[in-house]
Specification:
The complex is a heterodimer. By secondary structure, chain A is α/β, with parallel strands linked by helices. Chain A folds into 2 domains: about 240 residues, Alpha-Beta Complex (Spore Coat Polysaccharide Biosynthesis Protein SpsA, Chain A); about 250 residues, Spore Coat Polysaccharide Biosynthesis Protein SpsA, Chain A (Alpha-Beta Complex), CATH 3.90.550. In chain A, the strands form 5 sheets. In chain A, strands 12, 15, 16, 17, 18, 19, 20, 23, 24 and 25 form a 10-stranded mixed sheet that branches. In chain A, strands 1, 2, 3, 4, 5, 6, 7, 8 and 9 form a 9-stranded mixed sheet that branches. Chain A has a two-stranded antiparallel ribbon with strand order 10-11. In chain A, helix 2 runs parallel beside helix 3, helix 8 runs parallel beside helix 9 and helix 10 runs parallel beside helix 11. The relative contact order of chain A is 0.10. By secondary structure, chain B is mostly helical. Chain B contains 4 helices and no strands. The chains are: A alpha/beta, B mainly alpha. Chains A and B meet through strand 9, helix 12, helix 15 and helix 16 of A and helix 1 and helix 2 of B.
Chain lengths: ~500, ~80
C-alpha cells in the first residue's frame, strides 16, 4: 500500500450490512471492501439479530476475513459513530464495491466540499450498467434508488443526530431523508462504484421499514399523505390536496377534427367532455384559446359542456403556441394552470389530484403526466435533455416495460415535462415569464422547464396521472434551426448530459 | 381583451426577455454552470470520447496541420 493509499484508508470506515445475505455473500462483499483499500481495522460487518435468527455463522464469516462485528442495534451504531476517527463512513448494503471506490468517491467529496452524502452507479455481474438518477428527493420517497454503496461525512451524520433508533432496517434511507431535510447536500457520483445482483428481494422487513420511515418523514414535515406499497421497495405517495384551489385548464385549439380509433371527433370537445365526465377534481375552469376559424358549433358545444366554467378567448393573430398559452394564462383565474393540448383523453380519473398534490409540495415547480399514443405505447414519461437537444423518456415503450429503478411506477424528478399536459402554479408561471415568445412553435416547453428549474424548483413526472395524447408517432416536428439556436443560446451548457432518466 | 390582461401579457414577455438575456450571458461566461454530478458526468463523457479510436485517428490525421499551425504561430508571432 502506497503512502497516499494509506492516507486515504485512514480517512474512511466501512460498514457492511449483512441483513438478507448469506455469510458467503457477506464475506465476498468484505473481500471486495478490503481489496478497495480499506483498513481492516476500520471495517465492520453489521449483524442484525432480527434479520438472522442465528448470527453465529455470520460472526464466523467475519472472523474468517479478520473483521469485527457490529450489532445493528441503533445504540451500537451510534456508539461506533461517536468513536470513529474516520471522516467518511461508507455503508455497503449488497454487492461488491469497485476496486477504485475510494479515489472516486472520496475524491469527489474532496473536490466538492459542500457535498455530504454520495451514492453511485453500479453494474450487474453480467456487466449491464445500472445508472442512478441525480439526487431526487421526491423519487426517494417512492423508491430507495441509492444502490449498494452510500458514503456520508461522519461530521454531517453526527450533526443530524446519527442513526434514528426507530428506523431500524431502513437506516440509510432515513439518514438521507433527514440529511436532505436538514439542508445537507446529497449527490450522485456518476461513475461505477459497485457490482451488484439485480433486484434483491425483500428481507428482514426492510420494505415495510422503509415505508414507515417515509410516512414518518412526511408527518414530521407536516405533509398530509398516504403511503401505499405498489410492490416490495416501491411505494406510491398520495398527497392530500391543500385548500382545493381553483385549477384553470388552458387549452389552445382551432376546433379541428381527427379520426381516432376509426371515429371522427372534434378534438377539443371530446377532450373537455372526457374531463367533465371523468375527472374527480371539481374546482375547475376551462380557458379555451380558440383560433378565429373555430366553427361556431364547436363553440356552442363547449358552452353546453362547460357552462359557466368556460372562459373562451379569441385568438386572431398568426399561429404562436407560446403567445396563445400566455393569453390563456393571463385570462385564467386559477391558482394553478393546467396546460393541456386539445388532442388528449383522460385515462385516470384522479389525474388532476395526482398532479396537484405533487405541485403543492415544496420545491416542485412543474408536474407532468404519463401520455400514451393511440396504440397505448408510451408517448411521454418525462423529457430527456442531452447534447443540447430534447427528447422523450421511454418513447414508444410498450405497457408494462420499466427500468431497474422502477421509473414507470414512481413519481420522480425529470429534466422536463411536455406542455401537452403540465400543471404549474400561477405564481411560478408569472415569475418565469410564461412561455417565451422567442419560441413560437417548438421547444417552448423545454425552455419553460429550464426556466422553472433555474429558480431551484424541480420538474416532476407522475406515472399515476395518465392520458392518451393522439399525436402521430411519426410526426415530423420540423425543428427550425433558429429555434434550436434560441434554446441553446440560453441553456446549451445545462442540457449536455441527462441525469434523471438515464435508463430510459 | 382588457387592458389589465394586455398588461399582464406584457409583464410575462418582459420577465421572459430578462431571464433569457441573463441566461445567454451566463452561457457565455467562463464559470461553470454545472452541478458537481454534471461536472463529473461531462468529464467522463469527454474522457470516453478522447480515448475512442475515432478521436485518436483524427488526432493522427490532423497532426501535420496542427504542427504547421504551431510553426506558423512561432515564426509569424
Amino acid at each position: 500500500m502506497s503512502v497516499a493509499d494509506a492516507a486515504l484508508a485512514a480517512r474512511v470506515e466501512a460498514w457492511i450490512d449483512s441483513a438478507g445475505h448469506t455469510a458467503d455473500e457477506v464475506v465476498r462483499t468484505a473481500r471486495a471492501v478490503l481489496g478497495a483499500g480499506f483498513d481492516p481495522a476500520a471495517v465492520r460487518i453489521v449483524v442484525d439479530d432480527v434479520a438472522h435468527e442465528d448470527t453465529s455463522e455470520m460472526i464466523r464469516g467475519a472472523e474468517s476475513v479478520g473483521l469485527e462485528v457490529l450489532s445493528a442495534q441503533p445504540a451500537a451504531l451510534n456508539a461506533r459513530l461517536a468513536d470513529t476517527a474516520a471522516e467518511v463512513l461508507f455503508v455497503m448494503r449488497w454487492g461488491a464495491v469497485a476496486g477504485d471506490l475510494l479515489p472516486k468517491a472520496v475524491g469527489f467529496l474532496d473536490r466538492f466540499p459542500a457535498i455530504d452524502v454520495v451514492y453511485g452507479d453500479s453494474v450487474t455481474d453480467a456487466g449491464l450498467p445500472l445508472l442512478r438518477p441525480a439526487f431526487s428527493p421526491l423519487r426517494l420517497l417512492s423508491n430507495d434508488y441509492l444502490g449498494p454503496v452510500v458514503g456520508v461525512r461522519v461530521a454531517a451524520l453526527r450533526a443530524i443526530g446519527g442513526f434514528d433508533p426507530v428506523s431500524r432496517r431502513a437506516q440509510v434511507l432515513d439518514v438521507v431523508l433527514r440529511a436532505h431535510a436538514a439542508g445537507r447536500s446529497i449527490a450522485l457520483v456518476p461513475v461505477i462504484l459497485a457490482t451488484e445482483d439485480l433486484a434483491p428481494g425483500d428481507f428482514a422487513g426492510t420494505s415495510s421499514a422503509q415505508a414507515e420511515v417515509v410516512a414518518r418523514h412526511l408527518a414530521e414535515r407536516g405533509i398530509e399523505a398516504s403511503v401505499e406499497e405498489i410492490e416490495p421497495f416501491v411505494r406510491r405517495v398520495r398527497y392530500a390536496i391543500v385548500d382545493e384551489p381553483l385549477v384553470s385548464i388552458v387549452i389552445p385549439t382551432r376546433g379541428g377534427s381527427a379520426q381516432i380509433a376509426g371515429t371522427d371527433r372534434v378534438l377539443v370537445v371530446e377532450a373537455i367532455r372526457g374531463i367533465v365526465e371523468r375527472s374527480t377534481y371539481a374546482n375547475l375552469e376551462f380557458v379555451v384559446v380558440a383560433d378565429a376559424e373555430t366553427p361556431d358549433e364547436v363553440v356552442a358545444e363547449l358552452e353546453e359542456l362547460c357552462g359557466d366554467r368556460l372562459r373562451l378567448v379569441l385568438w386572431d393573430a398568426p399561429f404562436n403556441f407560446s403567445a396563445k398559452m400566455n393569453r390563456g394564462a393571463v385570462v385564467a383565474r386559477g391558482d394553478y394552470l393546467l396546460l393541456l393540448n386539445d388532442d388528449v383523453e383522460v385515462v385516470s380519473d384522479d389525474w388532476i389530484e395526482t398532479l396537484l398534490g405533487l405541485a403543492q409540495q415544496d420545491g416542485v415547480g412543474i408536474v407532468g403526466a404519463q401520455l400514451y399514443f393511440e396504440d397505448s405505447t408510451v408517448q411521454h414519461a418525462g423529457q430527456v435533455y442531452t447534447g443540447g437537444v430534447a427528447g422523450h423518456a421511454a418513447f414508444g415503450w410498450a405497457g408494462g416495460r420499466d427500468d431497474s429503478i422502477r421509473s414507470m411506477a414512481t413519481d420522480h424528478e425529470v429534466s422536463g415535462v411536455t406542455a401537452a399536459c403540465a400543471l404549474i402554479a400561477r405564481d411560478v408561471y408569472d415569475e418565469v415569464g410564461g412561455f417565451t415568445l422567442a419560441l413560437p412553435g417548438n421547444y417552448n416547453d423545454v425552455d419553460l422547464n429550464m426556466k422553472v428549474r433555474a429558480t431551484g424548483r424541480s420538474a416532476v413526472f407522475s406515472p399515476w396521472a395518465r392520458l392518451y395524447h393522439f399525436e402521430s408517432k411519426t410526426r415530423d416536428p420540423r425543428i427550425l434551426e433558429s429555434d434550436l439556436a434560441t434554446l441553446q443560446g440560453r441553456w446549451s451548457r445545462r442540457m449536455q448530459v441527462e441525469l434523471y432518466s438515464r435508463m430510459m | 381583451m382588457s387592458s389589465e390582461a394586455e398588461l399582464a401579457e406584457e409583464r410575462l414577455a418582459f420577465a421572459d426577455r430578462i431571464i433569457g438575456l441573463e441566461e445567454q450571458v451566463r452561457e457565455l461566461q467562463a464559470a461553470s454552470r454545472l452541478t458537481p454530478t454534471e461536472t463529473v458526468a461531462v468529464e467522463s463523457r469527454l474522457a470516453v470520447m478522447q480515448s475512442s479510436l475515432t478521436w485518436r485517428a483524427g488526432r493522427v490525421v490532423t497532426l501535420p496541420v496542427r504542427v504547421l499551425r504551431v510553426v506558423k504561430r512561432r515564426v509569424l508571432g
